[in-house]
Amino acid sequence: MGHQEHEIIRLVSRAQRDQQAADHFIQQYMGFIRSETVKFTHTAPENGHEDELSIAMLAFYESILSYQRGKGPFLPYAARNIKNRLIDHYRREKRHMGVLSLHAPDGEEEARALLDTLPDQTDHWEGYALKEASRQEIREFGQRLEALGLTFGDVADNCPRQERTFAVCRRVLDYARKNPRLLRRLEESGRLPMNELAQGAGAEKKTLERHRKYLVALLLAFTNGYEIIRGHLRQMGSAKGGRGA
C-alpha cells in the first residue's frame, strides 16, 4: 500500500470519529465526488444534475462511515458506493415517474447512457421540469432539517446499523402514518412524540432516542410527499450494516 493510500486511510479513520474531520475530508475530495457524478451522468452537475451530486456526496459520507481496511483502497470503494446510489436513484425515478431516465446506464459493460442509444424524441421541457422538481425537493428538505438543527450528515450518521433496529424504525414510521396527528405534531413542534411512538410501535423508548435524528428525518419525509428523500432514507441503513445498533 502506497504512502498516499496510507494517508487517505488515516483521514478516513479520523473522519469516522470526528464530524468536523469528516466535513473537511468531504470538502477536500469534492473534486473526486464531482468526477464520479460526471462519469455517471455524462455531463456537469450544473446541467440539471445538482440532485445527483447531492446524492453522490451522501454516498461518499456513508462510505467514510462504513469503510474498513479489508474492503480495499478507499477511493475505489467510495466510487462503487456512489455509482450504486446513483443507480438506485434512477431506479426510484423509474418507479415513480413510470419512465426510465435517459441518463441511466443501459446495462452494457461500457455503461453507455440510454440517451446515447435512442433517437432524440424526448420532451425536453418535461425532463427539465422533473429535474427541477427533484432539486427543489432536496433543497426544501434540507432547509426543513436545518430549521430543526439537523443536516443530511447528521441523519446519515444516526441511521440504524442493524437490520433489527432498522425494522423498529420502520414500525415507528408505519404507526405514525396510520396516525397523521403524530406527523402534524412533529411538523408543528419539531419534536418527536416519543412516548406515543414507542408505545404504539411496540418499541423501546431508548432505541428511538438513540436514533432520534434519523426518525425525525424519516417521519418528516412523509409529511409533504418527499419521494426522492423517502427512497434514500429507506436504503441508508443497509449501507452501514453489521456495526452494532
From TrEMBL:
Intracellular or extracellular location(s): Cytoplasm
Activity regulation annotation text: Negatively regulated by the anti-sigma-I factor RsgI.
Extent of motif Polymerase core binding: 51-64
Function statement: Sigma factors are initiation factors that promote the attachment of RNA polymerase to specific initiation sites and are then released.
Domain RNA polymerase sigma-70 region: start-end pairs: 26-95
InterPro entries in alphabetical order: RNA_pol_sigma-I, RNA_pol_sigma70_r2, RNA_pol_sigma_r2
DNA-binding region: 194-213
Protein name in UniProt: RNA polymerase sigma factor SigI
GO MF annotation list: DNA binding; sigma factor activity
A GO cellular-component term linked to this record: cytoplasm
Record's keyword terms, sorted: Cytoplasm, DNA-binding, Sigma factor, Stress response, Transcription, Transcription regulation
Family that this chain belongs to: Belongs to the sigma-70 factor family. SigI subfamily.
Subunit structure: Interacts with RsgI.
Transmembrane segments: none
GO biological process: DNA-templated transcription initiation
Source organism superkingdom: Bacteria
